[in-house]
């Protein structure tokens, strides 16, 4: 009979979709797991194993479904659409809410695996009367494997880079729900229930569509294994990718994959950045300019001085300052410095700001990322320091983060040389920050600048710096001593290549 | 030809698709062919029936024809002596081949886009830079101190070669040992010429050109092509040949086998000035290119400037000069006018000057190359290591410069200025072919040429305008130097009180040349009219 041999191509396409989405959910779970828990080999292995096992459970369970097969099939598709489709956003929310991530992960894997396991046997039974068994198994299973191939090729190459995990997962949820809708048209079904089923399909699709529209693209493959520690927060700004990780002991901030600070030793960095400069100034500053430093940690140190009246913080990246003003984890680190009434934040390029600014400041704190590219490198040039000089005048003082005098010795001394060429008197300093190594700063002031001997008492008790610890900052041992360097200029920026070469040497 | 292009476009897009596995969504963008008023230009070429001039005869002191660098420089010089000028410009915009656009997020050049820090001999350009505050003072050795912000910010150039960007135009890593050795030898040779002096004690190559040595030893280089010179000195590796040809195309708009070896060597060996400040880039760069300089000089000029004025003829008259001008300021109703002036400065190309003044024997007419300049208004993700000048090794064009490069803050939106010179020997054919292209074809050509490095550019572009320069710049072909009028540093008068000032005089299109010719013509006219002008600026 012709009827018996015909299976509509739409139905076969549905099989491919079902198969693809099944594998996609599995890959999403594995990716999320390795992304949050680290150790991707183990995570992929666990998730795949558990998933296959759950599929076995599902296949076995399918024998207990006896009536209204089609209704069940539609319901299972819808369940899968919801559980699978929302798996990535759910896992992410559980994680950021610091919930039981592993529990949620494995429950979702088992649930999705079981549902997928029921799917295929059920479908075969539904089609049983249209095709003989030999034909049927051959067709359905071969298409199932084609779908698997699709999924595993497209997932890393297209879906994750283009859509991100969250949206991929929800998009496949929608596909599953569409399969459910289509099957209500293709397969015979009792009229009484058909509208109820279709309505539920619409609801599920709507939920997922809203999810896609509102959920931001979260992450890429690469990051998953990059940071080691679990990610507490991730965002993408026009300028950089911002990632905060949190392990029981420490919180870390990465910008474009580069460590900015680690909570267990950032106090060393920021105390040395701020307090010797204030001591050298010899008085509490009234007006302070912070260039860069959107994390608010330098501001936190500045605000220790009661006489500070105004802190102007210039950071290019609105996203960074927003995070450090709003996200609780970040706020505990800077002790709400960015919400202090004395602090004004402006999101603009620091060089551009100096060009147009006409005010002067008692203290300027310059805390930019290292000069690893030409865009940041501009902020380490003679012209930049000349503009800076105009803003602190003869009475003020500046302090500049200047990369590592140990790992990037020539770079450090190039910065010192350049600052000096801008008519500053310079006093170089260094401190050991365990997560960075030996780190350097340049104090820059007018003719009378001297190495400070004592901290200003009103600063109170610090975690690292004491009067006794001060002199060590200014003494440079042999392997960090000054080396000859030339002034770094805008139209040359040899600092960028010097810096890149020096760090590359250490990495090899 | 059109078929082939379409196929290449598809192939490139296909490759791009494979490369980043996203379907290209080429967003339609807008644009047009701007500038160079063809209709008016052709009126000039074909001649208009000069009926009686409308209205009364207008009188002026000094008329300057053309608002390019030469004309603007003349007006600038006259103004400093307190003399007004009436400037008549054919186009709707000022600047000639150093003009600029101001629409979009950042101003951008339509032609000349940089000025190397001038040699001490180029005194007028140095004075101009001082006026502009680019030069802030002079050091003990009387060398200029520069406002560094105007020097091209690093990185200056990058090269796209075999699928990747490399810093600099000659990335050492791309060369094998043989190529590197040849490059070294070439640079050594150039260094020798740079410091060579002729038997008259002058440097072999200088800027302005008129300061160069007249020693036959060097002049004979004008009798062979640069290609022949390279052969003679066994410079054969493809990379070096590409590099030298890139220079002749970029500077003269012509291939190695038409350019005089003297001119090409002048490009490599005429700049000796160096201070600590210029060891990085010695290019002065502004968003609007050399339009920045023109704009300043025009702002200083005294008197009026009128656009869409085609000067049709100039004749010496009883009271000085008579100019017949087609006033097309209302394009639908052009009117013929007559202007009487005491003196005129013709700041137009040689072939035009010859048409305006029938028996102008003193004019040097040069071969000239057609160019295409396109400005692409783009929005693209910030990327920290982009260069000002991006060159594609195997492209047909010369690559592009980023007009927004000198902005200090990172920005997603910018304007890219793309250049292409038609360097083949047959300029007429190239000019005719270029004149017939429609905007859509030109835009596709530009994107296709950049596609190997920027498959995504079509998507990022919101506007792409094209400028066609039929006669962009003189071509210093073999023998160009001997065709140059002697002495080179004397003003060129075509008749009593009619001076000529244009880069065609030098035959090498450099700002310094045009600026010097303009100033010189103005000083000669001031002298002729008996104005006090103070010391010469040259
Ligand atoms: C694409 C391109 C890139 C370049 N890049 C550089 C560079 O980077 N650096 C550099 O130094 N040089 C560069 N040049 C060379 C540049 O052309 C010269 O530096 C200089 O601008 C020439 O000026 P000019 O005034 O002598 O001539 P033009 O620019 O030719 O000026 C002549 C003017 O006269 C007008 N005119 C013509 N006929 C008439 C008429 N009958 N009536 C009224 N007006 C008329 C024209 O419209 C024009 O405005 C470049 C040129 C081009 C085309």
Distance between the termini of chain A: 72 Å
Query: Could you state the oligomeric state of the chains shown?
Result: heterodimer
C-alpha Rg of chain A (nearest Å): 30 Å
Catalogue the unreliable spans of chain B. Answer: 13-26
For the biggest sheet of chain A, the summary is: 7 strands, mixed
What does this structure look like?
The complex is a heterodimer of chains A (508) and B (538). Chain A is of the alpha/beta class. Chain A is built from 19 helices and 11 strands. In chain A, the strands form 2 sheets. A 7-stranded mixed β-sheet of chain A has the order 7-6-5-8-9-11-10, sandwiched between helices. In chain A, strands 1-2-3-4 form a 4-stranded antiparallel β-sheet, with no helix packed on it. In chain A, α7 packs across α8. The termini of chain A are far apart. Chain B has 538 residues and is of the alpha/beta class. Chain B folds into 3 domains: 2-18 and 27-38 and 101-111 and 368-474, Alpha-Beta Complex (Polyamine Oxidase, Chain A, domain 2); 42-90 and 308-366 and 477-529, 3-Layer(bba) Sandwich (FAD/NAD(P)-binding domain); 157-280, Guanine Nucleotide Dissociation Inhibitor, domain 1. Chain B contains 15 helices and 22 strands. Chain B has helices at 2-20, 38-46, 69-80, 123-131, 177-195, 216-219, 226-232, 238-252, 261-269, 291-300, 350-356, 427-436, 439-450, 457-460, 511-529; strands spanning 33-34, 58-65, 85-88, 100-101, 108-109, 115-116, 135-138, 144-146, 157-161, 164-167, 283-284, 303-306, 309-317, 320-327, 335-346, 368-379, 389-392, 399-402, 413-421, 461-474, 492-495, 498-500. In chain B, the strands form 5 sheets. Chain B has an 8-stranded mixed β-sheet. In chain B, strands 2, 3, 12, 13, 14, 15, 21 and 22 form an 8-stranded mixed β-sheet that branches. Mean pLDDT of chain B is 91; it is low at 13-26. The interface between A and B is medium-sized, with 28 and 27 residues. Flavin-adenine dinucleotide binds at residues 44, 65-71, 88-91, 96-98, 111-115, 290, 309-311, 347-349, 352, 371, 373, 419, 469, 472-473, 502-503, 509-511, 514 of chain B.
């Amino acid at each position: 009979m012709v009827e018996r041999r015909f299976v509509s191509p739409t139905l076969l396409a549905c099989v491919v979709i079902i198969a693809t989405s099944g594998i996609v959910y599995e890959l999403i779970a594995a990716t999320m797991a390795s992304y949050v828990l680290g150790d991707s080999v183990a995570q992929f292995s666990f998730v795949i194993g558990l998933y296959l096992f759950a599929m076995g459970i599902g296949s076995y369970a399918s024998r207990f479904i006896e009536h209204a097969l089609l209704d069940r099939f539609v319901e299972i598709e819808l369940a899968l659409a919801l559980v699978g489709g929302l798996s990535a956003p759910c896992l992410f929310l559980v994680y950021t809410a610091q919930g039981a991530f592993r529990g949620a992960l494995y429950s979702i894997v088992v649930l999705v695996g079981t549902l997928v396991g029921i799917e295929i046997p059920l479908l075969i039974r539904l089609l049983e009367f249209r095709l003989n068994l030999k034909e049927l198994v051959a067709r359905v299973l071969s298409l199932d494997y084609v779908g698997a191939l699709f999924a595993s090729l497209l997932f890393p190459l297209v879906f994750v880079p283009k859509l991100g995990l969250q949206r991929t997962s929800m998009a496949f949820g929608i596909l599953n729900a569409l399969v459910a809708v289509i099957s209500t048209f293709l397969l015979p079904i009792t009229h009484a229930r058909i509208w109820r089923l279709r309505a539920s399909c619409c609801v599920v699709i709507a939920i997922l569509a809203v999810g896609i529209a509102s959920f931001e693209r979260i992450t890429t493959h690469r990051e998953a294994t990059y940071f080691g520690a679990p990610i507490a927060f991730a965002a993408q700004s026009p300028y950089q990718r911002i990632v905060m990780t949190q392990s029981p002991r420490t919180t870390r901030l990465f910008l474009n994959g580069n460590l900015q600070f680690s909570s267990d030793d950032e106090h060393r960095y920021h105390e040395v950045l701020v307090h010797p400069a204030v001591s050298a100034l010899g008085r509490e500053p009234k007006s302070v300019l912070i260039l860069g430093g959107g994390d608010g940690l330098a501001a936190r140190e500045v605000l220790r001085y009661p006489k500070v009246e105004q802190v102007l913080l210039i950071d290019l990246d609105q996203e960074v300052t927003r995070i450090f003003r709003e996200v609780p984890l970040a706020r505990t680190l800077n002790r709400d410095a960015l919400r202090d009434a004395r602090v004004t934040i402006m999101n603009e390029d620091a060089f551009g700001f100096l060009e147009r600014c006409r005010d002067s400041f008692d203290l300027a704190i310059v805390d930019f990322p290292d000069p690893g590219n030409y865009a940041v490198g501009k902020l380490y040039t003679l012209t930049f320091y000349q503009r800076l000089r105009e803003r602190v005048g003869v009475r003020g003082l500046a302090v500049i983060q200047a990369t590592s005098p140990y790992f990037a010795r020539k770079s450090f001394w190039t910065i010192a040389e350049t600052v000096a060429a801008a008519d500053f008197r310079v006093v170089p300093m260094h401190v050991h920050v365990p997560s960075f190594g030996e780190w350097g700063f340049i104090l820059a002031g007018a003719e009378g600048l001297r190495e400070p001997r004592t901290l200003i008492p009103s600063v109170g008790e610090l975690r690292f710096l004491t009067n006794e610890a001060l002199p060590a900052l200014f003494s440079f041992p042999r392997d960090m001593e000054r080396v000859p360097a030339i002034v770094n200029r805008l139209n040359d920026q040899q600092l960028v290549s010097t810096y890149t070469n020096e760090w590359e040497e250490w990495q090899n | 030809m059109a078929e082939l292009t379409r196929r290449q476009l598809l192939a490139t897009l296909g490759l791009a698709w494979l490369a980043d596995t996203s379907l290209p969504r080429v967003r339609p963008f807008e644009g047009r062919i701007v500038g160079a008023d063809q209709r008016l230009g052709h009126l000039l070429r074909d001649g208009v029936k000069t009926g009686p001039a409308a209205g009364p005869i207008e009188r002026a002191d000094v008329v300057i024809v053309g608002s390019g660098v030469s004309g603007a420089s003349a007006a600038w010089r006259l103004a400093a002596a307190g003399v007004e000028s009436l400037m008549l410009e054919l186009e709707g915009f000022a600047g000639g081949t150093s003009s600029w656009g101001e629409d979009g997020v950042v101003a951008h050049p339509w032609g000349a886009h940089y000025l190397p820090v001038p040699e001490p001999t180029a005194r007028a350009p140095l004075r101009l830079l001082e006026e502009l505050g680019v030069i802030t003072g002079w050091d003990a050795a009387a060398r200029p101190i520069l406002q560094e912000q105007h020097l091209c910010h690093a990185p200056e150039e990058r090269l796209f070669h075999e699928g990747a960007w490399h810093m600099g135009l000659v990335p050492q890593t791309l060369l094998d040992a043989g190529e590197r050795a040849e490059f070294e030898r070439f640079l050594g040779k150039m260094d020798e010429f740079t410091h060579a002096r002729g038997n008259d004690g002058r440097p072999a190559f200088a800027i302005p050109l008129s300061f160069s040595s007249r020693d036959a030893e060097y002049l004979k280089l004008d009798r062979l092509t640069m290609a022949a010179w390279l052969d003679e000195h066994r410079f054969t590796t493809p990379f070096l040949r590409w590099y030298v040809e890139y220079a002749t195309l970029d500077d003269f708009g012509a291939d190695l086998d038409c350019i005089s070896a003297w001119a090409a060597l002048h490009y490599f060996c005429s700049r000796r000035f160096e201070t600590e400040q210029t060891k990085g880039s010695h290019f002065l760069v502004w968003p609007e290119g050399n339009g920045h300089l023109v704009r300043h000089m025009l702002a200083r000029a005294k008197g009026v400037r009128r656009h869409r004025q085609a000067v049709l003829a100039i004749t010496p008259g009883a009271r000085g000069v008579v100019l017949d001008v087609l006033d097309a300021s209302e394009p639908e109703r052009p009117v013929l006018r007559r202007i009487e002036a005491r003196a005129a400065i013709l700041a137009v190309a040689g072939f035009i000057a010859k048409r305006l003044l029938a028996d102008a024997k003193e004019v040097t007419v040069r071969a000239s190359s057609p160019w295409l300049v396109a400005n692409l208004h783009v929005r693209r993700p910030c990327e920290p290591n982009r260069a000002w000048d991006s060159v594609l090794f195997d492209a047909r064009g010369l690559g592009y410069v980023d007009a927004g490069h000198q902005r200090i803050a990172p920005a997603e939106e910018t304007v890219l200025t793309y250049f292409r010179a038609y360097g083949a020997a047959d300029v007429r054919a190239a000019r005719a072919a270029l004149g017939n292209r429609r905007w859509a074809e030109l835009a596709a050509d530009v994107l296709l040429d950049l596609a190997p490095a920027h498959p995504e550019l079509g998507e990022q572009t919101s506007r792409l305008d094209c400028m066609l320069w039929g006669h962009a710049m003189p071509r210093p072909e073999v023998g160009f130097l001997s065709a140059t009028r002697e002495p080179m540093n004397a003003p060129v008068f075509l008749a009593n009180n009619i001076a000529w000032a244009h880069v065609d005089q030098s035959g090498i299109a450099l700002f310094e040349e045009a600026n010097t010719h303009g100033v010189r013509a103005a000083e000669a006219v001031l002298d002729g009219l008996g104005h006090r002008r103070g010391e010469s600026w040259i």
